[in-house]
């Protein structure tokens, strides 16, 4: 009869938590000696700087639109009163003061359309018709001349409505153009490929400010005498062409990542060129370049600030317009720039988070 000796197993440490804020800190802030040192340095720097920032920006700041109080607080506290005093001019530019409700409603309508367009439940065929209606109402409200609204020239549009309109229209029009140009650059037809390559290289070889200058000042010289295109239309076309050139190269990168075997399989199944592109190539290619595409969208939104060169005062230009003409509030540009920085950040951050959501949805579809 065999006997066995019982040998107890040594106690093991309890498993660490795999969720919660402690786990997140261990994984992201204190995962190694280098990360720990960096975290501690940044924490020390924050402890050193934050009290002074709070003192300047909050405790000693002036929030009332009182120029005398702001002058008295210079050097010790921020003057947020400049935002309280000038926010309507900063956000709406030179648009007639008594008609400010029109750009507010128009901008709210366009932002609502953008939010709905980002929701999967609204990705229906009628979404395009909805945008036709939104744009029609937007331009009717902004331009006037219909339904008893007084007409307002496009050179008086400005501020946030102009920024959002320029970015939205440029992105909407540049996206399909970029796909066509990217496909054309990979075409087997030399003439089409040469045209697309020439267009991309010419546009990418100059800064956007040069394109806007050409569209606004040089293009009218080639028009027939007596014929003129509104400066706002020329600016939208210029930004669209510029954005499409960069976006086309992003799309081309996605197209080149598609394995050649998939194209051969499509040929075997008898699919036409456009069926192959629409059902096989483009869905995969566009999914691969979502982060780069969103970077380009964010860049377009910020590049709208350059239209000031052609006397269209979007958000940044409207700020300069509001303060340069007022000696009392001119010294407090920093606070005003912090305000529009916050506006730009909110929009860019929202686009960035939406990009992450789209990537997560695409990752989930690939995991099935």
Structure, described:
- The longest helix has 35 residues.
- The chain has a domain of 245 residues: MetI-like (MetI-like fold), CATH 1.10.3720.
- α7 packs antiparallel against α14.
- With 368 residues, it is mainly alpha-helical.
- The protein is built from 15 helices and 1 strand, in the order αααααααααααααβαα.
CATH class category name of the domain at 67-95 and 152-367:
Mainly Alpha
Compute the number of helices.
15
Helix content: 55-70%
Quick one: overall form? flat
Computed over alpha carbons, the radius of gyration is: 28 Å
End-to-end C-alpha gap:
56 Å
Mean pLDDT: 88
Order of helices and strands: HHHHHHHHHHHHHEHH
Main sheet specs: none
Structural class: mainly alpha
Q: Per DSSP, what share of the residues sits in E-state strands of 2 or more residues?
A: under 5%
The CATH homologous superfamily of the domain at 67-95 and 152-367 is termed MetI-like
Give the number of DSSP strands. Answer: 1
Low-confidence stretches: none
* CATH-defined topology of the domain at 67-95 and 152-367: MetI-like fold
Query: In CATH terms, what is the architecture of the domain at 67-95 and 152-367?
Result: Orthogonal Bundle
Write the layout of secondary structure elements.
Blueprint: H1 21-28, H2 33-59, H3 67-72, H4 81-92, H5 101-117, H6 126-143, H7 159-185, H8 190-204, H9 208-218, H10 231-256, H11 260-268, H12 273-288, H13 290-303, E1 313-314, H14 315-324, H15 333-367
